[in-house]
Predict the structure.
Amino acid sequence: MKFIMEQQLNVLKDTYTVTDEAGNLVSQINSKVISLHRKRFIRDASGNVIFIIKGKLVDILPTYYILDANEREIGKAKKKFNPRAHFKLELGGEKYNVQGTMFRRSYRISGANGEIGTIHKDGFRMFKDKYEIEVNQKNDVFKLILMTSIVDMLYFNGKRSHD
């Protein structure tokens, strides 16, 4: 199953929409452009919060905490010191490995039972970022949306890449 996560132009908010192959809205992601806590909200198509990603103010190697809708910590993602894009994610007791290419355009996500999906960043967008998400199992859709959002925050600072 393929999904598209695309940044929407907005001056006050960093906003993304996620659609399926038919163009149906699956998720909305938003955060304030200027925020001390670097919070990003992942919502379903109805606007209900599924995950909140919260970063620390100061980090040598960035760590993001994953919260549920009630702001209880349910996981974290930590960047690894590695020339390639690489981070580990723990979510609800399950561990995932997110391994990217040298140029940080493609990522493979694997868990205890093997690969669960891939993420590809469209590198030729001038003013807004776009990611293609391929999910192997339907029940992993929001996990992959979460991981794509973390990739954006870790490697592209949640901003337009201008490349």
